[in-house]
Specification:
Elements (H helix, E strand, L loop, with lengths): L2 H15 L12 H10 L5 H14 L3 H6 L2 H8 L5 H15 L2
Length: about 100
């Protein structure tokens, strides 16, 4: 079985195994979900949801994450921990997303 086949099989089975599963992160679109997921490493979903309220008001498009300074982004996400690496990861992801 290939990796793709395994992934498809898992996607088919998960709803049966976890029928009430849902995401605790607050987001409105795939970009926001990706950013929230990056921020969730070693952090609670509750803290991420607090931080992303301000962040998602400031950054609405991938280009906004590219344009925001590293220092400003770090300041917004500082309370999530590992904020320097997370800010670098978010900005790098956004740079790739706009291509």
């Amino acid at each position: 079985m290939t990796r793709v086949d395994r992934a498809r099989e898992l996607a088919r089975r998960f709803p049966k195994v976890y029928p009430d599963a849902h995401c605790e992160l607050d987001y409105r679109n795939p970009l926001e979900l990706l950013v929230a997921t990056i921020l969730s490493a070693q952090c609670t979903d509750k803290r991420v949801n607090i931080v992303t309220k301000e962040l998602f008001r400031r950054c609405k498009r991938a280009q906004d994450y590219v344009d925001i300074s590293q220092e400003e982004l770090e300041g917004i996400i500082r309370s999530t921990g590992f904020y320097r690496n997370k800010a670098k990861s978010i900005r790098a992801m956004a740079g790739e997303a706009r291509r």
